[in-house]
Queue: 2 jobs
Job 1
Amino acid sequence: MKNSLFIEKAYHNGSFISSEKTFEVINPATLKPIGSLPDLTVKDCQKFIKSADKAWKSWKTTPVGERSKLVRRLFELINEHRDEMAEIMTLESGKPINESQTEVDYANSFMEWFAEEGKRAYGETIPSLAGNARLQTIKQGIGVVAAITPWNFPLAMITRKVAPALVAGCTVVLKPASQTPFSAIALAKLADMAGFPKGVFNVITSKDSKGIGKELATSQLVRKISFTGSTEVGRTLMEQAASTIKRISLELGGNAPFLVFNDADIDLAVKGAIAGKFRNTGQTCVSINRFYVQEDVYAAFCKKLTAAVKNLVVGNGMKKTTQVGPLINKSGLEKVEHHVADALAKGAKIETGGKVIKDLFYEPTVLSNVSPDSLIASEETFGPVCALFKFKTEDEGVKMANDTPFGLASYFYSENVKQCFRVAEQLEAGMVGINAGLISNASAPFGGVKQSGLGREGSKYGLEEYMEIKYLCFGE
Ligand code: ADP
């Protein structure tokens, strides 16, 4: 591949490194390998952590103005290499090239945001209740940060952790998903070009996610772990991190509801549904998983949604016209097939789709009359399937939407302003899209409640995740 950012090496302490043992990365659209990377071990991981710890000693005292300039420089380099980054992303994740370009921009918006926000890590002066002592707080970077990221957003899930960490004065060991590590290495190449001191940013590549994850979560030297991925793995990392009382941020699975009320603008709702359901072939943690439609508008919404879904173009993401790519792998495809078969067995009707096209490509699908006891109602499908449920009253709709252990994103459509406030306040979710199917924004706090996670990414709150408050008491 002619792409200056495509590098088959890991990045440690300012150097690109190889190893004897490697693993292959597969293009999910063609099922062919696109390249291989070092399959590094737990022992290697210990070296990465040590280097990050050593680098932290000087990085933390580097003025924030300088740290910010480097993050800003990285932002500029990502902009300059937008097409190369997007190409790597599509080849390893299968997502349509237009979506990859949008992701590069979105990922980079965290670099821009935190390069600025890092300068505003203000402390406070606090009035003393007794005597004349002077009380103050300052904020300082936590220390070595371990970041573990998933395959569905190969760059954005990294930058929303790495940008605030670096500007806050932390150093980073990143372990990207083994399905999509080339985007992370491309970022390392640009960080190297930007001129970050050695050891400040490191990328470890490995097939041994469990072993590396455990080392990062239990190491005394790592002061914070930030993870995006499944609730199951998040739970394991939280348990492991308990041994050293590490700070932890978790952005875990969702099971997003999408409510369409009788007062909704149906055309707008269909547009939001397509955007919120089919981006990345339904493989995002904020993807709509359950469509609850109020009875008066159920038939109209189902008809219009089905017509829109039938128009979606499925194919290899490198083709400009493609709107829906393949699933990431066989187990992803099997989950979709299993959920659809289960829904059909419990009485659902196929409005469109419902079959594998070939290899990892699945037809964009609409199922109506889905029973609330179907698997799709309680588990994240992570695929291009719309499951439609009917409800009668607002209370019933909200109750069904909240009937899940998860609470990441939720969406609803209504033109009734009082209903908008009522429902937004009642939904048990960290984020609510009101007449909006896409909600992510670097300036807004992204995160979940219940078993969808801990902490927030992006926004002014996203910086706090990487800083400790220190209280200073100046005696009289
Ligand atoms: P997904 O369904 O998105 O693959 P995972 O939680 O399985 O979600 O994976 C997210 C990230 O966590 C990936 O980088 C993966 O390699 C890593 N991972 C998987 N299992 C573990 C584990 N036991 N400990 C730490 N990281 C893990």
Job 2
Amino acid sequence: MIFPKSEKEPNPKRNNPRESLTLCVANDRLKTMTRTRINPWRREGDGMFPITYRMDEHHHIFIGGMSVRDLAECYGTPLYVLDYATMLGRIRQFQGALDEMMPPGHAFYAGKAFLCTAMAGFLNDQGWGLDVVSGGELYTALQAGFDMTKIVFHGNVKTQEEIEAALRYGVGYVVADSLDELVLLNETARRLDKEAPVLLRLTPGIEAHTHAFIQTGQFDSKFGFAMKDGIHEEAVDAALSYSHIKLKGFHAHIGSQIFDEDPFVHNAERLMSFFGTLWEKRGFWPEVLDIGGGFGVQYTPLDDPPDVTRVLMRVNRTVQAMTPRACQVPLVFIEPGRAIVAEAGVTIYRVHATKTVPGGKHYVAVDGGMGDNIRPALYQAAYSAQVDGKPPEEMIRYTIAGRYCESGDILIRDVSLSPVEVGDYLVVFGTGAYNYAMSSNYNRVPRPAVVVVSQGRSTPWVKRETYQDLLTQDLPWKGLE
Ligand code: LLP
């Protein structure tokens, strides 16, 4: 087996990011680059591209002031690249809208979209909260020094250990998903002599128009308590009856990659109307209304994401209008994941083969695929791509195939690209959310590095896995006799 040289002998010229966290910065040619221009294919306002996306006169692509080619040569491929300015821009856009609300709303970034220690640190610095769904995400936040009071702990299965950890570390809210979990929460809190701050997860019966696998608001869902047949009321009874549970409010996330504004507003309406019933029937008024995430993003020119500022303004109006005089307007929580990172991310692949099959279909095979982006295989998710350094002329329709041993490992089914050759770098856009987070070592392929780019500098946030890393949990064969 031949191992890449850099794993054994660091190549100083390549800055060897596989072994260290040395920065790769734009070279002089790039620093003095004055003639970059906006890509002619790009439509003004397209979210599909990171906001710092540029193309120079030789059709080389730049993100965060870094050339895609230099990044590929410095860190190897495939490579996840995240544009800092885009992430920050999205955070500020949401924050601006939340600040306009009365009372101001709060954001909890959904860590499931993309989380690593540096990401948690970055969010903490922005004053954002974090939605975690596992002990692993919680541990990452803890190691990053995240403010635990700004954590919402989700998940339809939380183990005894996870619940105990959440309560010991003092997370802000635990979102209870079942009656069994309420019992466990109450018992654990009693044992630790604490009070568990709880939100109840409800399914409001709203079917957002998105892929069935990422719909969650309908009654027939594995998540939460259905707002039907008194199921949600039974959950409230239980929560209010337990001595070590403090019921703070309710949560309902209706799905992901939602383009319409109305489902978000209907969700708030449905919850607020339930709050009204609770007030009338029991004199209980919740402090928190958590509407989850799900704000759609643009993967291709066909996608038309909602205006988040308008959505939040409409939600706020609804919440205010439906709060009885005697009660305080509840705090609105949101949990955007995809909307913060998806469009900030691109994946750089190297082209390893091109072929044309009988019937004339053209394939391009790259050095990544379903191991670093499972979404096309899992959800038929569509992506956009460009070849670095090629003029947008004589476009050919290609199918982009991954390297994994599955016929279904197709990254993009139909994309028009300039003629592609072996050695070209292919840039796939919109890969910042649920790509690294859902990556695997299928076929024992090491996972790519994650590098953040900003103003001509690159900073690795996650190192590329090595072949040695693949073996860290393996134990040697010692026979079974
Ligand atoms: N809050 C809760 C309770 C959630 O279940 C989710 C996503 C979010 C927030 C964040 O949703 P976002 O803003 O990212 O749409 N793997 C799928 C997405 C699954 C989403 C699951 N829950 C994908 O790659 O499309």
